[in-house]
Write the structure tokens for this entry.
Amino acid sequence: MTLHVELVSPERVVLDTEATMVMARTLGGGDIAFMTGHAPFLGALATHTLTIFMADGSREVAAVHGGFVSVTNDHVRVLSDMAELGSGIDVARARAGAQAADEAARAGSDTEAEAALRRAQARLSAAGVTTS
């Protein structure tokens, strides 16, 4: 038995597939995994990675920048302000963004710079790049 998974951003449907499990990080709730038969759930997403364990045994990792996850009747819907699959991330651009955000965050306690750094780190992590 599988879950139907939809990952949607305002611009497009990023992923529409069958999976055995989905792992996400919620605001204030930490990491959570969804499998078939999961109780109905609605939560706000943190800027982090979303891991989808595909029905064929492969794994897809995406970077999500906030949004919501809803689970009902073995259907997981992820609605995010911005979502991108790790396989489509430009690593050089993400590294440059992380470096610029890190420098801005170190220069002061700029909340936007810290948020930009979290987004860049999520993108790098989704692309399989280890960050410190």
Notes: The chain has two domains: 3-86, 90-126.
